[in-house]
Amino acid sequence: MLPEQDKTIPLPYLISECILGNRKMQEMLYQKFAVTMYYQCLRYIKNPADTEDVLQEGFIKVFNNLHNYKNEGSFEGWIRKIMMRTALSYLRDNKKYSYHIDIEHASEIKEPGIFDTLVEKDIKGIVTKLPSKVKKIFMLHVIEGYNHREIAEILGCTESTSKSQFYRSRIRLQKILKKSA
Questions:
Q1: Is residue 2 classed as helix, strand or coil in its secondary structure?
Q2: Does 137 lie in the same domain as 62?
Q3: What's the pTM value of the predicted model, to 2 decimals?
Q4: What pLDDT is attached to residue 104?
């Protein structure tokens, strides 16, 4: 058995020990990913206290479902997806964050624009200026890479609502960028 203070414990060993219920290893796994996942959740939930609650709930889900991780792809990506879904579920379930938009038809502009020259880091900095209604959809589509059908399933809205909110976020961001230029 590896020493518990050793920070170079291989991830597969750490995961297997966590599955077996080793509390020290669970603590190490939590410490390894907590800060990154806190900021992942904070992207969706502005309130730090609520973000901490979502982080804890997310890690409970991680530990309860660790046996389902198949060693396919990034383990951090697997945790990140759980955290994102936990944050979005929290937003959907809490009235103070909820919103409803009823738009029948929306279209997505395919023309090249101001966003084509921005890197992800720039977009993340600017997107914080968006209202939460459109920010979630923008982040899911541009940053997380989900299509509008998947976003609609995650947020419990229609695909056309996702498209229209994404379009609105692009327009607002273009205005923000033109003001700062």
A1: coil
A2: no
A3: 0.55
A4: 36
